[in-house]
Amino acid sequence: MSEEDSKKIPESVKVKIENLKKLETLLGHLPCDNWTVSELQKRTEDSTHQHSLAQMEAQTEILFTEICEDLVEHKYNYSEIAHSVNGILASPTGMKYCNEVEVREALGIE
């Protein structure tokens, strides 16, 4: 078993990743298994929802940065951070949520 697989994500960080997943699902970036067509239609017609999209987008960026910073404090490297986040935000299509470059960008490292 690799060191990457053996690290346990701290519960506080796991909660943040789950919150990120909820936001990304609401934004339509991650699929939701139980939305009906009428719920999806309501999202596109509701002007208050459109206004809150920008706020939710900003919140996802802040939350992702916090997650990356928290995991760095727990001695995770960039690859381990991406692997850990992708493990929880797994998409049925196999598309990854983030990669090492995006982790470094979130941390302000070029």
Description:
Helices cover 68% and strands 0% of the residues. With 110 residues, it is mainly alpha-helical. Helix 5 (78-88) packs across helix 6 (100-106). 21% of the residues are buried.
Structural class: mainly alpha
Distance from N terminus to C terminus (CA atoms, Å) equals: 31 Å
- Supply the number of helical segments: 6
Residue share in helices? 55-70%
Gross morphology: globular
Number of strands: 0
Instruction: Summarize the biggest pleated sheet.
Output: none
Estimated radius of gyration: 15 Å
Contiguous uncertain segments of 5+ residues? 1-5
In round numbers, the mean pLDDT is: 84
Tell me the fraction of residues in β-strands, as a range. under 5%
In short:
This protein has 110 residues and is mainly alpha-helical. The protein contains six helices and no strands. Helix 2 (11-27) runs antiparallel to helix 4 (47-73) and helix 5 packs across helix 6 (100-106).
Chart the SSEs and their pairings:
Layout: H1 3-6, H2 11-27, H3 37-45, H4 47-73, H5 78-88, H6 100-106
Helix pairs in contact: 2-4, 5-6
